[in-house]
Write a structure and sequence with these properties.
The protein is α+β, with helices and mostly antiparallel strands. Helix content is 30%, strand content 25%. The protein is built from 9 helices and 13 strands.
Length: 305
């Protein structure tokens, strides 16, 4: 399945630790998710930027350059595993629409009523590719505009409409505008984890490999910085990783405060893995990756006990 990553900190930092150096960095995860790589961030002027290519992160020189040089207080990254649509720039996440950066992990059906809803919101012109994720991004963009630019209200409205009207397997979502960021795990089908780190934690926590570059990267760049990381799987052996609840929405406000809520009801038309086409089902199930993640969850539970 696709992989999501977000970093929000109280000052500009690099994400080299998480993108390149951590034991389960995005670079390592791209071995399983090789159909596209993208990063969205805020530049020094506070403007949203996206760099993406339909290639694997491990095979992209540009990914390494961005990971080591980019300094930003807010970032979203995505590794794509196609559910059957073309490998092209238009289908690669994240999507940037009217200053809103979004990335998605999961599968939903793009029905004619959904297309009609996006058109009614005046957001269909944002769709250039053929993915369900881009149609969902356009729905969010349209609802945010309809709600006076309120990102949280627009995301809740868009996802509430989806789960009531459209067959859904999974809608794990990252959405960002300015320094405001939202993460949604809906439903429990795919995992989404969060790691909060306070500015007082100046010493690095234990990592899987005590001699790995992740220790040096973490202590040099993230020491004394409050940060929140959201990812599809724990990226190191830190026992403070927390699995988000099914239906949970995390709201990282522009002032850095974090709130959690559960605004969504059950899916009206849930899809099971066997309901998906072969390509979509294959993109959501990878036995080797699932076994590795299960073992990591076991170790984290032991360390937290």
């Amino acid at each position: 399945m696709c992989r999501l990553f977000a970093l929000r900190s109280d000052q500009p930092v690099t994400a080299q630790l998480w993108l390149l150096d951590a034991p389960y960095s995005l670079l390592q995860q791209s071995r399983f998710n090789a159909d596209g790589t993208g990063i969205g961030w805020l530049d020094e002027h506070g403007d949203a930027q996206v760099a993406k290519r339909p290639v694997a992160a491990y095979d992209s020189e540009r990914f390494g350059e961005v990971a080591t040089s980019l300094r930003t207080p807010a970032m979203i990254a995505h590794l794509r595993l196609s559910s059957g649509t073309e490998h092209c720039m238009e289908n690669t996440h994240p999507f940037l629409q009217d200053g809103i950066i979004t990335a998605h992990n999961g599968v939903l059906e793009v029905t004619e009523p959904m297309r009609g809803r996006v058109r009614a919101l005046g957001a269909a012109h944002h769709v250039a590719g053929s993915t369900d994720s881009e149609w969902m991004a356009a729905l969010i963009t349209g609802e945010v505009a309809a709600h006076g630019g309120d990102l949280r209200a627009g995301v809740i409205a868009a996802l509430s409409w989806l789960i009531a009207e459209v067959p859904v397997y999974s809608v794990n979502l990252l959405a960002m505008r300015g320094e405001e960021m939202l993460a949604v795990r809906l439903p429990a089908t795919n995992e989404l984890w969060v790691l909060e780190r306070t500015a007082s934690e100046t010493a690095p926590r234990a990592a899987l490999d005590q001699s790995s570059a992740s220790l040096r990267a973490r202590s040099e760049d993230l020491a004394g910085v409050r940060s929140v990381v959201i990812a599809s799987e724990p990226m190191d052996e830190d026992p403070h990783w927390r699995l988000m609840d099914s239906g949970e929405l995390l709201h990282l406000r522009a002032d850095g405060t974090l709130a959690s809520e559960h605004p969504f009801g059950p899916l009206a038309r849930p899809l099971a893995l066997e309901d998906l086409g072969l390509s979509a089902a294959a993109s959501q199930a990878h036995a080797a990756q699932d076994r590795a993640l299960a073992e990591r969850r076991r170790r984290l539970a032991e360390r937290a006990a």
